[in-house]
Amino acid sequence: MRISYDAKRIFHNNTGLGNYGREVVRILHQNSNIERFFLFNTKKSSLENILPQDKVSIIYPKGWFWKKLSSLWRMFAINKQIVLDNPDIYHGLSGEIPIGLSKKIASVVSIHDLIFLSHPHFYNPFDRLIYKLKFKYAAHRADLIIAISEQTKRDIIKYLKVREEKIKVAYQGCNGAYKIQYTEKEKQQIVKKYSLPSEFVLNVGTIQERKNVLTLVKAIQHTNLHLVIIGSEKKYAKKVHKYVDDYNLDDRVHFLKNVPLADLAIIYQIASVFCYPSICEGFGIPIIEALFSKTPVVTSKGGCFPEAGGPHTAYIDPNDWEQLRDKLQELIDDESLRNSMIEKGYNYAQRFSDENVANNLIELYKSVL
Asked: What is this structure's pTM?
């Protein structure tokens, strides 16, 4: 089997969509007999070095014109180069399929979320229009749609008017770094490196409005808890920093960014509780990163969150900081409850193992051939 991938985000996105693409290639490379991976990239990237070197071909735009206009190349000119490699399947990893893709090549598209349609106030009108056009075309053109959660599948049916039988749910996995048990020495080195408190609540993700970290800051305000927030910052982060400054929380709210993967995985294991009070997600990978790290999780009710967290995660109203405060305090105070959640959450996370993710994807690929 020979698979072509839209790899722009694999090489130029360090977070969600990029992680998804890199994990798809890594997991399938290690757990399947795929003959060749063709990764279509717009330009050189330092991330190329972290991918397996055998069985992987990285393909760039041909000619100075398409190198300059790489967005247009991805939209339709890429087709000529795709055909030259004679792949069995083209897989758009981030909701896009090039216009005019040969009908002789089976096509699959992964759709992670439709938040720009379900929660449009988080996006500007121009972005909403472009995303809608791209996603609608891809959903109706592809032979198969992979939704990363049942919630996303429901949204695809509702907003893109696609028949249900064309959509299959395939959960994603997480990096193997979160599945390693780190030593006490390694943990203490990280505590020292980042000046971490001895006990803290952890939040990981881009600091933007829909991630709702301000509610978490308010929740720890009237407690003695420390909060460690790790992620890049959008405009919304200014509001969070202002609140921290206004209420003199600087000594208990700690911001980190550009944390290497190996360090982040250890910080997950050091944390007392992982909290993810997001308003909306396609799935919520940080939740399963925490479950694999054997850290109890508190996250939002409804949506996709129970799919990621399972029955033994704690769920709260993401708009109720008092409820969140009480739940966090309960977990900090009750070691027995934390241990129970850790054990059961880790067992639940095994459904997102590399082997399960690979088997699901291979079966879906076979179904379109």
From this structure: 0.91
